[in-house]
Amino acid sequence: MTPPAPDQTTDALHPVRAGLLRSAHADAAALLARTERETAARLDQARAEARAILDEARRQGEADGADAARDLLVTARRQARSRTLAARREAYEELRHEAAERVRELRRTDGYAAVRERLEQRARVLLGPAAEVSEHAEGGVVGRAPGKQVDLSLTVLADRALDRMGGEVRSLWEP
Amino acid sequence: MNPSGSMSLSGAIEYTHVGELRGPLAIVEGVSGVGWDEYVRITLASGERRHGVVLDADRDRAVVQVLEGTAGMDPEGVRAAFTGSPLRVPVGTDWLGRVCNGRGEPLDGGPPVLGSHTAEVGGAPLNPVRREPPSEPVLTGVGAVDALTTLVRGQKLPVFSVAGLPHLELAAQIAAQATTAGEAFSVVFAGMGLTHADASFVRDALEARSVAGELVLLLNTADDPVIERILTPRIALTVAEHLAFTEARHVLVVMTDMTTYAEALREVSAARGEIPARRAYPGYLYSDLASLYERCGRLRDRPGSVTVLPVLTMPAGDITHPVPDLTGYITEGQIVLSAETHARGVYPPLDALSSLSRLMRKGAGPGRTRDDHLDVAAQLLAALARVRQVRDLADLVGQAALSPTDRRYLDFEEAFLWDFVDQRSDEPRALDASLERGWRALLTLPRSQLSMLPARLLDAHGAKGLDEPGHPGHPDDLDHLDGLDGLDGEASR
Amino acid sequence: MGAVTGASGTRRRPAARQPVSRILRVTGPLVEMEYSGGIAMYDLVSIGPAGLPGEVVAISGDVVTVQAYEYTGGLAPGQTALPRGHPLSVRLGPELLGGIFDGLLRPLSGAGDWLLPGTQRAAAEERTWSFSPLVAQDEQVTEGQTLGEIRGAGPVPVKVLVPPGCRGAVEEIAVAGDHPREAVVAVVDGTEVTAGTRWPVRRPRPVRERVDSHEALNTGQRVIDLLFPVARGSTVAVPGGFGTGKTVLLQQIAKWCDADVIVYVGCGERGNEMADVITELSELRDPRTGGRLADRTVTIANTSNMPMMAREASVHTGVTVAEYFRDMGLDVVVIADSTSRWAEALREFASRTGALPAEEGYPAGLASAIAAFYERAAAVTTLGGERGSVTVIGAVSPPGGDMTEPVTAHTERFVRCLWSLDRDLAYARHYPALSWAGSFSRDVPVLAAGHRAAGDPAWAGRRDRVGAVLAEADRLADLVELIGIAALPARERMSVLAGRLVREGVLQQSALSERDAYCGREKTAALTDAVLAVADRCRELVDSGVPAASVEEVDFGPLLRAREDTGPHDIAGVAARRDAMLAGLGAVQP
Predict the structure, then answer these.
(1) A-B interface (Cβ pairs under 8 Å ≥ 3)
(2) Are C280 and C386 part of one and the same domain?
């Protein structure tokens, strides 16, 4: 039930990860606040319409009004909910994108040679000394041996690091 | 959701030698350290992602069952990554308010469901010594169910239905309305093999609960991979257990349709070449169903509870079919729906005489619901049993030849069905109101027939002898407006 | 018997060290590993890093097949397995009484909220036991003889016996006082004897001889004690579909029958129900000893969601525990609910090993497996020369209520008593829903003799009369359905009435009522006699010209309620109600 401990390779990504979440936070907060304002306004409007339909139905002694009002509210609530969720998803994907970007930037730093060295070693640990290891187009390495391979490209490593953050990412939309 | 194993070294290796594809099975060669029942992520040459489970870890071969099936798979270019453990899912309150598919991936346009902890979907058996016997009710707002077959926190109580009856409506209504006397409450709804129309009906019916952050909705539709159906209830229960025993909520898990689930299990079993037992279902159907149903309960020294409400359709209405039969052996009672009552236009079409909540005595009555609850329920059922005899007699001798008392029983049945049972599918009915309707139905009978009710209560309700004039009044129809008030209340929440 | 080593009395092979073996294949509970020497069939194996328990079920060439008793998820080829060098055995000792265990007899009380595979379950808190020696140093003793007693474990003293196969002089004997469970309390002919012992679950414990039993096990349930009695050391099967009250009936017997020790095996049943049994037993008092009922009970809880393979072992574990207490000269009852779930576990494993299936996928050996299980029930003279018995009561859950399915059909052949539960009776709220037409007891003749010898010569006659009344009422019931009661002659209407009185006044018994849940033998007799006397009087009345309808209208409530209105042994109360009823009938005029 506990999150697995980060392994050596992703330790290299640790500073990236912390800074990333900080800046993502600011972006997400703005996005989510805007969504919330919009959806609240829409919901208010839907409620007013629903009430109008109900009043009208009551005046005319009809029973059908209730269903129409209900449908209207259900739709409005669903839309509001999906806008909020979409905004969260946007924030989440932005974070992934940003993470991948930042990790790729590692290539231009002085430490990259050492990182690459470690990744190459790791590939050989996983696949055996005879593994063929090559540079990945987006940084990092790919190792191949008969019947198996490992993808240690920077993009994949960034993805995994994020996956491992699990619940932490929720702080983007949960104060 | 990111189903994840522990990120062991093995997680990073992708095996590329698929020696054989057969039915839903892929045989991956040259593996090492791969465990049985491990979860597998499969990537096709096209980049498409599929998922699988290890059925047989045999030396350096792993037989993998591909959840989405092997259609369109070319062994060339397939990569299989073993996650290092059986399927785990994130758990936590992030699930509340979410709508996902049967594998827990979002259907609501939101980000993946995230959690700071993960748990194995297979769960672990509750230690029977640590179980607390169930003793408090979950009120469903469905009058007949609450009054006659009270659902008790920690119980497993299935709905037995047949095709064409409104069991999905009933399941959705219970999921939408159920409460536990103001204590934190959530619903996890697992739909298996639903048609798109049904899935969208369920989403609509449960919208308010979802928005209120009290619902987790997992929807596996009829066109989703069959094998995925085997995971759906397990994910639902894993999420529910955490919400209950870690997050201190009372959780109701609705699982529908268990017959569809069992068919998926049969399909998998056949693909594995296992020896079939009754009606070609696997011999372990009982244990498999038990591994789901038995995850309900309460624990000593922990708050929260998991209550399970499986819904199943009896093929051709046959209660001896393995799915209802084995379910009946495991669960604590059953709510049976009747085609005959449905044909008369009564909703919910409860077959009250065949329905039973074995734990009702522990969860209803003095100190639990209302002092007269058990007596009223017993009297209603006793009267109903008599109605059945009277009907048989009427068939034999004709209605005109019935005694005055017997004719009152036919009046009682009318009142029972139309005033007590019948309810709108979007109408929450409080237990007090339901019991009062029960009383109203009972008072159509002469006092001498109400021997299960104490005299004090009969006096208070004005029970009359056979010859005394004055039948109780007709039900007022005012409560059709209740729904609107509820709607408004929700809207302004 | 030089091979006997240690205190257990089990024969161990000389190989002192078992080589570690490598796992080759894992598919569900079936694990294949390398043959590394020193492994025998049915030996215990610790599998993988978690040390999951398993049992060797096949050895073929250099591959050993092991059946794991727990969930094997994550177990991988290449990991190690450790053969333990002895068959699956359980620790037997005074701590069993009042305890709750899983199918392999590991204590559940100390385990956590969830049972994780392979977790070394905390052994029940080690405590000391008060031992009193009953033999002196240098005394000559033989197998099965009592060396000393342990008190304070439960309502009965737990005896420490000379292990089977061991005899000779007592070389050492502990002084009276407190000793830990594993302490050696005696040495007999070089064999160390501890307070507890180990025994392989699949091997019946030896006895001097099996004997015939003439003594009834009193269950406190009228329909059983009156119509389908069971002798001590006999076997019973209880088939019943769901909702027929099977578990309630078995629980009633566990609570009230007059055995010394009860072994309750919850085999693949409901968790909430087990929780309920456990709670109730610890709240109820034993009417005979005044102690808690839980203290004479050993509960083995292997609920339906606990590992299926341990379910297979749990019935053997249960009988082994029973035999352990039997060997002390006690009467023990094993209740297994439900043997169908056990048979399903057999089927499940057979199908995984690719065994040729017979009916409904069950292995061909099903019948012999069932027979072997019930055969461990017996009344015996123990090795130590005392009388003891193990009675086995097994529930059967026929799928779809189909009594022709293999488990039900085979079981019926091997048991001496069958208590068939009937769905129609249960539906009519007639509990216990034991069908008088569909049940049998082959113990009736010996028990009739036993009752005669015990001073109740009327027992057999009473049973016959009740049987006749019920049969006649059943025959007439079919007729009534066709033509209506009014069309029957008066005498026959009285037969229908007599049937109703017997059913409602004697056979029905409320498990929820404090006074009716348990019924003493004398009260059962008194109630039966009272109801029969009233039925006779009714018949005399119609013979004398009273219209049947007038008799039928009499309020028989006081008689029918006598079972609940009087205490479990209150014969005088029953007699008073009978006399009042007879007097009331005297007032009915032609």
Answers:
(1) yes
(2) yes
Does C303 contact chain B (CB < 8 Å)?
Answer: yes
- C50 shares its domain with C182: no
C98-136 pLDDT, tens digit per residue, is 999 999 999 998 888 999 887 655 555 567 889 999 999
Q: Is residue C96 part of a domain?
A: yes
Q: How far apart are the first and last CA of chain C?
A: 83
Q: Please indicate if any CB of chain B lies within 8 Å of the CB of C130.
A: no
How far is B312 from B158, CA to CA, in rounded Å? 7
β-bridge partners, A54: none
Same fold for the pair B9-86 and B89-363 = no
Residues 147-166 of A with CB under 8 A from B: 147-152, 160, 163-164, 166
Question: Per the CB < 8 Å rule, is A147 touching B16?
Answer: yes
DSSP letters, C115-180, are --TT--PPPS---EEEEEE-S-TT-EE-TT-EEEEEESSSSSPEEEEPPTT--EEEEEEPPSEEEE
pLDDT surpassing 70 at residue C460: yes
Report domain extents, chain B.
9-86, 89-363, 373-479
Q: Does C109 touch chain B if contact means CB atoms closer than 8 Å?
A: yes
What pLDDT, in 10s, does the model give residues B123-150? 999 999 999 999 999 999 999 999 999 9
Instruction: Spell out which residues of chain A touch residue B12, defining contact as CB-CB under 8 Å.
Output: 126, 150-152
Closest in A66, A127, A152 to B484, CB measured: A66
Say which DSSP state B180 is in: -
The residue segments making up the domain with residue C144 are: 128-197
Question: What are residue B65's DSSP bridge partners?
Answer: B25, B53
How far apart CA B171 and CA B215 sit, in angstroms, is: 14
- Which class is domain B89-363? alpha beta
pTM for this structure? 0.89
What single letter denotes the amino acid at residue B489? G
- CATH number of the domain encompassing residue C535: 1.10.1140.10
Per-residue pLDDT of B33-90, as tens digits, reads 999 999 999 999 999 999 999 999 999 999 999 988 899 999 998 999 999 999 999 9
d(CA C50, CA C23) in angstroms, rounded, equals 13
Give me the pLDDT at residue B2, please.
42
Residue C321: Cβ within 10 Å count? 27
Domain boundaries, chain A: 8-172
- Assign a CATH topology to domain B9-86: Thrombin, subunit H (2.40.10)
Centre a 10 Å sphere on the Cβ of residue B60 and count the other Cβ atoms it contains.
17
The CA distance from B124 to the nearest CA of chain C, in Å, is: 6
Strands B117-120 and A148-153: unpaired
User: How far is it, in rounded angstroms, from Cα C530 to Cα C150?
Assistant: 46
Q: Taking CB atoms and an 8 Å limit, are B110 and A85 in contact across chains?
A: yes
CB C388 within 8 A of CB C401: no
Q: How many domains does chain C have?
A: 4
Residue C401 Cα distances to A12, C344, C407, C420, angstroms = 65, 16, 12, 11
Token output for C145: 């003889």
Among B219, A77, B326, residue whose Cα is nearest residue C304? B326
Q: Does C121 touch chain B (CB under 8 A)?
A: no
B13/A2 CB distance under 8 A: no
- Segment C21-36 shows an average pLDDT of 93
CATH classification at residue C149:
2.40.50.100
